Amino acid sequence: MACGFDKGLIAAHYDGEITPAERLLVDRHLATCSECAADLSAMRELSASLKPLKGAAAPMSIAEGVMREVGSARRVHRPWVSWGLSAAAAVFLAVGTVYMLDRSGSPGRHELVTASERRTSPAPSAKPSALKEENSRDLYQGKKALDIPAEESRRDALGDKDHAEIPPAPPSMPPPPAADRGAADGKPAPPAAEPEKRQEEGRRVELTDKITPEKKRDEAATALGKDKKKPVTPVLRVTSADQTAARAEVEAFLKERKLMLRPAGEPLLGRSREARYRYLQVELSEEELKALQERLTGLKGTEVTAGSFEEEKKRVAEEEAKRKNALGPRAGEDDKVAGKAESEEKEAPKPETSPDQGRGMALADAPKRKTIILVFEPPPAKK
Amino acid sequence: MSPSDLPADRELVDRARRGDGDAFGLLVVRHQDRIYTAVLRFCGDAEDARDIVQRAFLNAWRRLESFKGDAAFSTWMYRIAFNESVSFRREGGRRRLAPLTESAPEPADDRRPGDRLDSAEARGQVQQALSLLDPDERKIIILKELDGRSYDEIAEIMEIPKGTVRSRLFRAREVLRDKLRIILKKAEPGSVESRPRVGG
Q1: Exposed (0-12), middle (13-18) or buried (19+): which is A134, by Cβ within 10 Å?
Q2: Contact B127 A380 (CB under 8 A)
Q3: Per the CB < 8 Å rule, is A252 touching B1?
Q4: Which domain does B32 fall in, by range?
Q5: Residue of A66, A244, A253, A322 best to disrupt the B interface, most CBs of B under 10 A
Q6: Which chain B residue shows the shortest CA-CA distance from A334?
Q7: Which one is predicted more confidently, A8 or A280?
Q8: Which residue among B19, B103, B105 sits closest to A57, beta carbon to beta carbon?
Q9: Cβ A336–B20 below 8 Å, yes or no?
Q10: Residue of B nearest to A57 (CA)
Q11: Do B25 and A70 touch (CB under 8 A)?
Q12: Tally of domains in chain B
């Protein structure tokens, strides 16, 4: 015979959503009603059955897709802002060009790559105030970023350290309008008479400077404690059993410095099913990077290691190979899902060969912060 | 470090309203896993879930002005995401049935391959049972059992009185238990349904 007790109260008791008076009432009833006691027990069993459905991880393509659209929407819905900011960027960069050309008599040299060699990524907007601030900042003169992702080089071109208005660079965005394209290239839109001269394929303007690409690589390598001779693209692996705590620590660190954590713009290391890494990016100075490393290392159960994209990619590939070996003939079933991600991976631009690597203008006025990719991952499971 | 050290959702929403895409990006990164889990379990398909969640966040971005702030951003996002799920299905979605063994990425583990397959099968069975519930039952199970939302939050997300949450949750659990029992019974080695057919 069905018990007439309020079953909602049994559910509330189980979920801890009950007042002390109600608890007393339910406890008394449970002591005498086997049906309601069985209901309570069944709720516990059901919760256990549902555990495997908890905690799926969102594919990074969601954040990437959203940010791509958010970037486009800003340009479409607020054209006056975009034009104004592009114009400000153009004026700033024109001044920068004159300044650089003026310095061409000094010893040493590096290359300024012409517009035709740069990626025709969408035009990021830049805050005039941020540009002014960056222009006056000269602390890092002579110290520049290295083999960093394309995203940073676009920012370098604008000299925008805050990046508050810059959407991430989608790999397949259509070229922006001419005016924006000029800003994205780190130059004002050239007048009609000049484009051929500027965009001539392969043409380079050589500038003299004490900074060489090798020297820049060495600086970044030093910052990450790596071999000076080896080209380094900064990747910081945060291995922690408590991913939430590690992320919260990073967020807190960045908040103190008024820096933003962003989804990594592109699937640089692949997103196969088993390689469930979380890629986020942030712009940090060398000091900030060291401080972040120290802070995370101090977090219980957290390990921080610096590395490069190439190392990271190699590691992912090795783990994937191991997984396939372990699964044997059934591995193919999992790969049905991973297949798409793997094909995307092949299309993903490699940071070392990104067209933005030759960002000439950026070399003169690069901000002191570099893009660091943070990889969040749990520690390897014990055998 | 306390939670108050982190930029509050509200602060990020305010910045996003002023056109700060990065602030919105942080909101996406912060909430996407929970929203994705909810939508994945609601619709039962990983690709649909990805599309729905993306559309939901874009809707949120476009409608930020209408976010009054009297509820939490996450509550608002759940509402948008569930509505988007319903619209997506109504529009035809990808016209796929919820798979028995769903294909969402799952936490990496170090168990033997056989164990992993068993786990995937169990997950598929529970997902299948969940898919047999009506949408409101599914929502309330997801919010309570998978996301651990309080009754107050569930009431806000589903726009129902708190008392209704109690009774509806009890009912939804009961229905889910029955569906799961039937599915597991069918999957038992000796059951009629699981026996291979002999001859034509």
Answers
A1: buried
A2: no
A3: yes
A4: 1-99
A5: A66
A6: B103
A7: A8
A8: B105
A9: no
A10: B33
A11: yes
A12: 2
Same domain as B84, residue B14: yes
Residue A43: per-residue pLDDT = 92
Which regions of chain A does DSSP assign to beta strands (E)? Answer: 110-113, 204-207, 235-240, 262-263, 278-284, 302-307, 370-377
* Phi, psi of A376, rounded to the nearest 5 degrees: -95, 130
Rounded Cα distance between A242 and A41, Å, is 30
- Which of B59, B76, B99 is the endpoint of a domain? B99
Place of tokens 């692949």: A270
pLDDT tier for residue B123 given thresholds of 50, 70 and 90? confident
- State the maximum Cα–Cα separation within chain B, in Å, rounded to a whole number: 70
Same domain, B150 and B86: no
**Residue B117 and residue B81 share a domain:** no
Structure tokens at A125: 């907007």
Is B151 a domain residue?
A: yes
Residues constituting chain B = 200
pLDDT band at A288 (very low <50, low <70, confident <90, very high): confident
Report the distance separating Cα A275 and Cα A307, nearest Å. 17
Q: Is the pLDDT of residue B132 over 70?
A: yes
My answer on whether B40 and B73 are in the same domain is yes
Q: What is the pLDDT of residues A228-276, one digit of tens each?
A: 444 455 778 888 777 777 777 887 787 777 676 665 544 444 444 444 4
- Indicate which CATH number applies to the domain containing B185: 1.10.10.10
- For A299, the token pair is 């977090």
- Are B25 and B62 part of one and the same domain? yes
**Among candidate residues B99, B122, B144, the one where a domain is terminated:** B99
B194 and B114 share one domain: yes
At A185 the three-state DSSP class reads: coil
B153 to chain A: nearest residue by CA? A17
Predicted model pTM = 0.48
Whether the complex's predicted ipTM is more than 0.90 is answered with no
Least confident of A333-337, A352-356, A373-377: A352-356
Is residue B161 packed enough to be buried (19+ CB in 10 Å), middle (13-18) or exposed (0-12)? exposed
On whether both B95 and B114 belong to a single domain, the answer is: no
Closest listed residue to residue A183, CA positions, set A125, A131, A136, A130 = A125
Nearest-Cα distance to chain B for A148, in Å, is: 19
Closest by CA position to A270, among listed A231, A319, A211: A319
Pair B170, B138 in one domain: yes
Q: Do A53 and B25 touch (CB under 8 A)?
A: no
Type of residue numbered B105? P
Is residue B104, in this structure, part of any structural domain at all?
no
Q: B176, B187, B173, B34: which is closest to B100 by C-alpha?
A: B187
User: B122 in a domain, yes or no?
Assistant: yes
Q: Which of A50, A59, A65 sits opposite B145 (nearest CB)?
A: A50
- Cβ A11–B23 below 8 Å, yes or no? no
CATH label of the domain that carries residue B29: 1.10.1740.10
Residue B18 C-alpha, separation from nearest chain A C-alpha, in angstroms:
10
pLDDT at A327: 63
